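step 4 of 6: structure.
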Amino acid sequence: GAVVSQHPSRVICKSGTSVKIECRSLDFQATTMFWYRQFPKQSLMLMATSNEGSKATYEQGVEKDKFLINHASLTLSTLTVTSAHPEDSSFYICSARKNSGGARPTQYFGPGTRLTVL
Amino acid sequence: GQQLNQSPQSMFIQEGEDVSMNCTSSSIFNTWLWYKQEPGEGPVLLIALYKAGELTSNGRLTAQFGITRKDSFLNISASIPSDVGIYFCAGQGSNYQLIWGAGTKLIIKP
């Protein structure tokens, strides 16, 4: 199997607070995880690539100081939205790349986290 | 950023009908992937294609990796109500990042 979990599934917070979202690969190790953001009726937008033991690589236009990513182990990556504002409200989805015997890596997605900033 | 051309944008079909959707790209990909996403959930991998010309089935779903490596299609035969959702194609290049289509929303008329 290839199961990826996210926690929490939903979070509501006040403007100015920070929110941490966890992404775990439950039955495989993932040296690489990805964080996406999805607006209503749109496709997934890659925010950053999270590499175990090293700094994340952010896509153009994504503020690294705003969206802190930590990939401390082969099964866990965290995304912290710092000083959240209403415009940060979105659906955040992580994925983990599973390398099947060293060939044909495939991304498996978590169930997503709905963030609402009041 | 780059996005694949996925069509149609939406489909209204009767239960039992066959469905076909496709994606095209100006770039070559090493892998084509098809995902399904339901409201409030993350995408679920349906089919992965790794070789040009490859035709792969998963139950009632069939997908093909175009011979030019720039396109792929997904067919669903004999649609059922639980097939509703948004289907996304994604191309994976040598850097393993995914380039996404805009999605095809499938709606089944009662």
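step 5 of 6: annotate
 - Chain A touches chain B at residues 4, 6, 32, 34, 42-46, 49, 59-60, 91, 93, 95, 97, 104-112, 114 (CB under 8 Å).
 - The radius of gyration of chain A is 14 Å.
step 6 of 6: archive
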